[in-house]
Design goal:
CATH architecture of the largest domain: Up-down Bundle
Strand order of the largest sheet: 1-2
Order of helices and strands: HHHEEHHHHHHH
Number of helices: 10
Structural class: mainly alpha
Radius of gyration: 21 Å
Strand content: under 5%
Low-confidence stretches: 1-6, 248-263
Largest sheet: 2 strands, antiparallel
Shape: elongated
Helix content: 55-70%
Number of strands: 2
Mean pLDDT: 81
């Protein structure tokens, strides 16, 4: 039987499509370089020339960028001016904190369920490290800077969402990332100063980590929702008592980076 020849541009298109799929599924993350050419050739089953043509296509589309001596990375998409303006507007509203908690209740419950079903061994290792770092910072004496704890808290929840391997869910969370991190800071500033509440939240983090690691989808979803409801109830109690949220959701770009130790 005569073997059908595939045109070079078709091979490049297929290579680009498969790498895009890897990015969408979270196999390749924004904050890490793409695997080496040798590894990509082996995993995709293509020649080095075909791989380079596929990478060239992705660079032309703006999907990846290549840095001399460092390799290729998934491009960071610049937030549109309109979205940044909305972030600034929302960040000045006290109600935004509670609106975000309602959204997190919807998204993170399902993310935890999916993570418990789909997490890879690497996802579980990353989640373990995130939880260990958060637990250590939360129990440190003297207490660590709340902004640092908030960054670790955010990284822990983000690791669960990434382990869901749902690219649409991750895209929605990416769009809200700055505001969500601001809401985490607000919660840490207000709730971690209450010892009993802090203990409850710490235990929920540990239980959520364990549920995902033990691949218990129903339990993971239940604990994730319970965690957000606890935060909502405690913040509502503070507001009803006349105490303003001291740290409103922030749009400080400088705090959106993940702790280097967890990358």
């Amino acid at each position: 039987m005569k073997r059908e020849k595939i045109a070079p541009h078709q091979v490049a298109d297929r290579v680009a499509e498969r790498i895009e799929r890897m990015i969408g599924e979270g196999t390749v993350r924004r904050d890490q370089p793409l695997p080496s050419e040798r590894r990509l050739c082996a995993s995709l089953g293509v020649s080095r020339s075909a791989l380079r043509e596929g990478l060239k296509l992705l660079r032309e589309r703006g999907v990846i960028r290549t840095e001399h001596g460092r390799g290729s990375f998934v491009s960071e998409l610049e937030a549109p001016v309109e979205r940044r303006a909305l972030e600034q507007l929302f960040s000045r509203q006290n109600r935004t904190l509670f609106d975000l908690l309602e959204v997190r209740l919807l998204l993170e419950g399902e993310a935890a369920r999916l993570a418990a079903s789909r997490a890879t061994p690497l996802d579980l290792l990353r989640l373990k490290r995130c939880h260990a770092a958060l637990s250590a910072a939360s129990s440190a004496q003297p207490p660590q800077d709340p902004a640092a704890i908030a960054a670790l808290d955010h990284a822990f929840h983000r690791a669960i969402c990434e382990a869901s391997h749902n690219p649409v869910l991750l895209s929605v969370l990416d769009a809200l990332d700055v505001l969500v991190l601001g809401s985490v800071r607000a919660c840490v500033y207000n709730l971690f100063s209450r010892p009993e509440c802090k203990q409850v939240l710490d235990r929920q983090h540990a239980r959520l980590h364990r549920a995902v690691a033990e691949r218990a989808p129903d339990r993971a979803e239940r604990i994730a929702r319970e965690h957000i409801r606890t935060i909502h109830a405690q913040c509502s109690e503070i507001e009803s008592g006349g105490a303003l949220i001291r740290e409103r959701p922030s749009v400080d770009v400088g705090i959106t980076e993940r702790p280097a130790a967890l990358q």
